Amino acid sequence: MKFSEVIGQQAVKQRLLASVRGNRVAHTQLFLGPEGSGTLPLAIAFAQYLNCPHKHGDDSCGTCPSCIKYQKFAHPDLHFIFPTATNDKVKKNPQSGLFQEDWLNFMQKNRGYVTQSSWYETLGVGNKQGTIYARDANDVVKLLGFKPYEAKYKVVVIFQAERLHISASNKLLKSLEEPPDNTLIILIAERYEMIIPTVRSRAQLVKVPKLQIADIRDTLLQQFPEKVNAEQATELAAFSHGNWNLALELMEQADEGEYNFVKFRDWMRLCFQGNDYLALHGLIQELSRLGREKQKRFLIYGLQVMHNSLFVNTKHDLSVVAGASEKDYLQKFAPYVNAANQKQMYELLNEAVYHIERNAHPGILFADLSFKLMALMQAGRRALQIG
Ligand SMILES: [Zn+2]
After folding, report:
1. Residue 67 and residue 73: Cα distance in Å, rounded?
2. Which of 240, 322, 334, 347 could lock 327 by a disulfide, CB 3.0 to 4.6 Å apart?
């Protein structure tokens, strides 16, 4: 990861660069900053810079053999230690060494911008809290005993250092105090007070502030020009509280909200027309391919449409619950949700959520649901014509 790929944080970057130029790189450093500020990407960019033989000015070259490995977070002299817990695969004695491949994929997928919760989700550890164990510390001590394979600096990155078990902290003290030559240990943490003082006192503190709103906005526009316009990027950045991961999450939610609206509207239209089986089949296929969580949220969105239709029918104001195009749609759709079908439609969608949660076959579920909704939409239409 090059410094130029790290979002914002100019002051921290300059400070790190100055330490290299001034030959004052502390062997043990603690990068402390809130979630989504880029502590981990900064640490990696720093390590890559230190090891690049062709660094120029403010950045590593990005193309030498060392940088190429660092760009993939996979360099034989770059080691990661992180919290782990038991999961389906590792049923006892979890430790970082057993999850290296998962970690690497996770890092590559997120370009270093990872959070504790998304890591636990990736591991599939449920509600368990991860820990960095004494076994992990033993591994660190052991690997520090060897010379670097090929790099100038051997680098150990300890992600979420506040999850260091007390026994692990104690085992690490000596290494943190006096690491071998050409070794850099970087602790990454969000909560200073959760790291024991003997560990804290051995590391040089690098404070990383939350990101600036303008940096988040600009990066969103740069990385996702097809997803956000200037106005949306500004809004997402403002709500992100300087947390890049939160900005991404909000963007995805907004995206999904729009998707659900468009697809549900199409679905109801096809059910209402009841004759374009090819298009309906295509849509069912598409919905079947969404992940379970997304299918569930799609159906819950449908329940919300039913609910809002009742609002429209009873002449309530919709400005709080729906956007402009959604509101427009609801005005047209709502009359067809009436006494003839509303209860059954609501129940059908509700049941579908229940079955999705219990691993029903999504293709069968959406097909079945479509035919039942078709009949119900017809009933609603007849009721409207008679009424
Ligand atoms: Zn390089």
Report:
1. 9
2. 322
- The domains of the chain, with CATH numbers, are 3-210 (3.40.50.300), 213-242 (no CATH), 248-386 (1.20.120)
Q: What is the pLDDT of residues 235-259, one digit of tens each?
A: 999 999 999 999 999 999 988 998 9
Q: How far is the CA of 71 from the centre of ligand 1 (A)?
A: 10
Question: For residue 76, with 0-12 CB atoms within 10 Å meaning exposed, 13-18 middle and 19 or more buried, which class applies?
Answer: exposed
User: Which residues have C-beta within 8 Å of that of residue 209, sequence separation ≥ 6?
Assistant: 9, 11, 12, 33, 37, 242
Per-residue model confidence (pLDDT) at position 103: 97
Cα(46) to ligand 1 centroid in Å equals: 12
Residue keyed to tokens 């502590």 = 39
**CA of residue 48 to ligand 1 center, whole Å:** 7
Non-local CB neighbours of 150 within 8 Å, separated by 6+ positions? 66, 76, 77
Alpha carbon distance 41, 6 (integer Å): 6
Q: How far apart are CA 32 and CA 215, in angstroms?
A: 19
CA of 78 to the centre of ligand 1 (A): 15
pTM: 0.80
pLDDT digits (tens, 9 = 90+) for 292-328: 889 999 999 999 999 999 888 888 776 666 778 888 8
Strand order through the sheet with 204-207: 78-81, 154-158, 183-189, 28-32, 204-207
Distance 73 CA to ligand 1 centre (A): 13
| C-alpha 273 – ligand 1 centre gap (Å) | 61
